[in-house]
Write a structure and sequence with these properties.
By secondary structure, this protein is an alpha/beta fold. The protein is built from twelve helices and eight strands.
């Protein structure tokens, strides 16, 4: 059900920071037409940290309503409070999402037994598939492989987005056979081509897919089919984008790129700000290298 190129979709905003529902609908339709395999709604790229709880729930429900089951919708529903994560997960379930993405609790740095209890509580509270999300660079909290294995034994914990290193993916893959239900996703666009060609992952939850959805879908399709040369050729064109879209904190460069493409307005919420002028040439050059039309 969950594989291939999964976009961590941006939340379009007007210049005043209010949500642009019309542009969000257009982005969703573009992704479906471009072959994106699933959408993560209100993840990091969707500015989960700055949306209110009501907005967060509304964006997920809106996305589900527009998608109409054409592709899966995975709701970002993580929090560093287990109670809040359960609330967001319950709302996603009631709103018709196909799964939730649960980030490791950030800032409070729980031990591994606390991580296990956190995810176990969410999974038992709501009968919705859960994809774990390990991103130590943002959370200061690492889900250890042994904890991932233990959590995978809970029936509705179905995968992990691993946004750390290729080495960690190489450590995880032998712990889960390719035939088992538990899936491994790269959370790093920069390593996903190599990872899929090595047989380490079932897909990528991607930032680059925001601006190059068709290419990212093709990259994953080729990699999963074992066509390494063609997969790496697509990736070669995207390498500058993988780098440039993280020249400042995500989603700052991504939203500027989408604005430069004419896909969204320039809105972003504090403490995030628009892309610095001295970074704009790098992002624009990467877009041009990927043969993306600018306005």
């Amino acid at each position: 059900m969950f594989q291939g190129s999964i976009v961590a979709i941006a939340t379009p905003m007007h210049a005043d920071g209010t949500i642009d529902w019309y542009k969000l609908e257009q982005l969703i339709e573009w992704h479906i037409q471009s072959g994106t395999n699933a959408i993560v709604s209100v993840g990091t790229t969707g500015e989960s940290a700055t949306l209110t709880f009501d907005e967060h729930k509304a964006v997920v429900r809106f996305t589900v309503d527009i998608v109409k089951k054409r592709i899966p919708v995975i709701a970002g529903a993580g929090a560093n409070s287990t109670k809040e994560a359960v609330e967001l997960t319950t709302s996603a379930y009631q709103g018709g999402a196909d799964a939730t993405l649960q980030v490791a609790p950030y800032y409070n740095k729980p031990p591994q037994r606390g991580l296990y209890a956190h995810f176990e509580t969410i999974a038992h509270a709501v009968p919705l598939p859960v994809i774990l999300y390990n991103v130590p660079s943002r959370t200061s909290c690492d889900i250890a492989p042994a904890t991932t294995v233990a959590l995978s034994k809970i029936g509705n914990i179905v995968g992990i987005k691993e946004a750390s290193s290729l080495e960690r993916l190489r450590e995880l893959r032998p712990l889960f056979s390719r035939e088992c239900a538990f899936k491994i996703f790269s959370g790093e666009d920069g390593n996903c081509a190599e990872a899929v060609c090595e047989g380490l992952i079932d897909g990528v939850i991607s930032v680059t897919a925001n601006v190059a959805p068709r290419d990212m879908s093709e990259l994953m399709r080729l990699g999963l089919a074992g066509n390494k040369a063609a997969c790496m050729a697509v990736n070669e064109k995207l390498l500058p984008l993988h780098k440039a879209l993280f020249c400042e904190a995500n989603p700052i460069p991504t939203k500027w790129a989408l604005w430069r493409m004419g896909m969204i307005e320039s809105g972003i919420r504090l403490p995030l700000v628009n892309l610095a002028e001295d970074k704009q040439a790098e992002v624009e050059a990467a877009l041009k290298a990927a043969e993306i039309t600018l306005q």
